[in-house]
Amino acid sequence: MKRFLPNLLRLAALILLIAFLVRPELFEPLLKPLVQANAPAIYNQGSLLSLTLSHLATVFTATFAATLVAVGLAILVTRPVGAEFLPLSRSLVNIGQTFPPVAVLALAVPIVGFGEKPTLIALFLYGLLPVFENAMTGLSTLPKAIVEAARGTGMTAWQQLTRVELPLALPVILAGIRLSVTISLATATIGSTVAAKTLGEVIIAGLQSNNLAFVLQGGVVVAVLAVLIYDAFSAVERALARRAGRV
Questions:
Q1: Does the pLDDT value for residue 69 go beyond 60?
Q2: What does each C-alpha distance from 121 to 61, 114, 161, 193 come to in angstroms?
Q3: Residue 70 contacts residue 135 (beta carbons within 8 Å)
Q4: Which residues fall within 8 angstroms of residue 140, CB to CB, at 6 or more apart?
């Protein structure tokens, strides 16, 4: 029973989240004590479901782009021909961690305008470092015996990379992607300050109107999404690690 309890809790959280996004009015009695008289308890300036889907789309688009660039750089610097570019690559991927997302938004808005684009830029830069470091670690710590065996079978460098190195390093790479997605889920809320469609709209509306129920709705939805997605990535990592261990 103890083994299945965490999964039951995750399933319950997912069901409650979907129910809240589809029929938020059902939860009004729970949120009503948090608002002043005559103030709405449920966010009424847009669709929570639509904002959630837009929030997720922004996060996954930025993470996908960051993953492509970060893994590409990691592959380059773990090859003999690209090893000398490691310091430069590290400097590039650290840009997002050096500049706070708010500063990136402030710099990006004059260039690309308001909306989703500056948010994507900020999340892209912020998501590079964890994916790059994990990808580089995964590719550079592979068992030498396996790499030599692959080379000894006559595989080309490309075949060795795609059939042996990347599949074995994938659990470690996914750990970096998991971290990047989790960070971006929370960070994306600030995108609403530059007119991006994210759950930050709900939080900002609550702060502006002193409506604690709005703030709680936006914060809880983001938090539950982060926990569920984090756990989903963790489950995939464990499955891939077990599979790699049997190969």
A1: yes
A2: 10, 12, 29, 14
A3: yes
A4: 78
Task: Residue count of the chain, please give it.
Answer: 247
- Is pLDDT of 242 > 80? no
CA distances from 184 to 25, 49, 108, 146 (A): 28, 19, 17, 35
- The average confidence (pLDDT) of the chain is 87
Distance CA 205, CA 237 (A): 37
One-letter amino acid for residue 44 of the chain: N
- Amino acid sitting at position 43: Y
Tokens 């190969």: give the residue.
247
The pLDDT value given to residue 4 = 74
Q: Which residues of 23-43 are buried (b: 16+ CB within 10 A; e: fewer)?
A: ebeebeeebeebbeeeebbbb
Q: ∠ CA 161-178-207 to the nearest 5 degrees? A: 150
Amino acid at 110: P
